[in-house]
From TrEMBL:
SMART domains: AAA. Part of the ABC transporter FtsEX involved in cellular division. Important for assembly or stability of the septal ring. It comes from Telmatospirillum siberiense. This is Cell division ATP-binding protein FtsE. The gene is ftsE. Homodimer. Forms a membrane-associated complex with FtsX. GO terms for molecular function: ATP binding; ATP hydrolysis activity; transmembrane transporter activity. Gene3D superfamilies: P-loop containing nucleotide triphosphate hydrolases (3.40.50.300). It is a peripheral membrane protein. GO terms for cellular component: plasma membrane. Belongs to the ABC transporter superfamily. It is found in: Cell inner membrane; Cell membrane. Keywords: ATP-binding, Cell cycle, Cell division, Cell membrane, Membrane, Nucleotide-binding, Transport. One of its GO terms (biological process) is cell division.
Length: 228
């Protein structure tokens, strides 16, 4: 899934980006930052500061109201509509509300990105159980999401986001439902992925994580971004 342009320059670039919902006020204003290829950043800010909105811009679920967003070297606003799904497939997302498919087992949820990418069933049987075991779900491979706890669902969601080794991983409060020990283990997974070249951004309120790991912080406050 690795793409040559992901190894160069910035994977994400925002120039004076603003977001508003409907006719409401701008909840993000003049946000400018870049994520160099292979970087790891935390995104912090109080509840309602706009972290999820910023991530949504990056996985193309939300349009900016002004400013320029360049993703994998492509200006989103001037890209053709048919070009966007290919960009989106290069982004792994851990959603705050998980968004698992309830009728599929943990295994099949995690296998989804591999199936979409055309992986063989052999590879799926080889890699998916290993990853689910690594995140502590060896006993729940065949469980469906409604039978899992919040923390277990979160780990399935994380496994699904990382299994295809995306060029960019965006995680929205990925440790909100697990204890500190599991949180550090999940962060280790993100670090391993980052070492393989994935650019990572983790939005979190967890100050313990932010202070224990040596990554720069982008902080949202009053609709503006500053470096921590
Ligand atoms: N779909 C929407 N329609 C209208 N307003 C929205 C919508 N989504 C978010 N907002 C508003 O935008 C602001 C930022 O919300 P957002 O979810 O991005 O913040 P956040 O920093 O991720 O918060 P949290 O940490 O609580 O998840 C909030 O004031 C929120 O009410």
């Amino acid at each position: 899934m690795r793409h040559p342009t992901a190894d160069r320059a910035n994977v994400v670039q925002f120039d004076n980006v603003a977001v508003r919902y409907g006719y409401g006020p701008e909840i993000l204003q003049d946000v400018s930052f870049s994520l160099p290829a292979g970087s790891f950043h935390f995104l912090t800010g109080s509840s309602g500061a706009g972290k999820s909105s910023l991530l949504r811009l990056m996985y193309l679920a939300q349009r900016q109201s002004r400013g320029r967003i360049v993703l994998f070297g492509r200006d989103i606003a001037t890209s053709r509509r048919y070009e966007l799904p290919a960009l989106r497939r290069r982004v792994g997302v851990v959603f705050q509300d998980f968004r698992l498919l309830d009728h599929l087992s943990a295994m099949d949820n995690v296998a989804l990105p591999l199936r979409v990418a055309g992986a063989s069933e052999n590879d799926i049987r080889k890699f998916v159980p290993d990853l689910l075991t690594w995140v502590g779900l060896a006993d729940h491979l065949h469980a469906k999401p409604p039978t899992l706890s919040g923390g277990q669902k979160q780990r399935v969601a994380i496994a699904r986001a990382v299994i295809g080794r995306p060029d960019l991983l965006l995680a929205d409060e990925p440790t909100g439902n697990v204890d500190d020990h599991i949180a550090m283990r999940l962060m280790y997974l993100f670090e391993e992925l980052n070492k393989l070249g994935t650019t990572v951004m983790v939005a979190t309120h967890n100050e313990n994580l932010v202070s224990r790991l040596p990554y720069p912080q982008l902080h949202l406050e009053n609709g503006q971004m500053r470096r921590g």
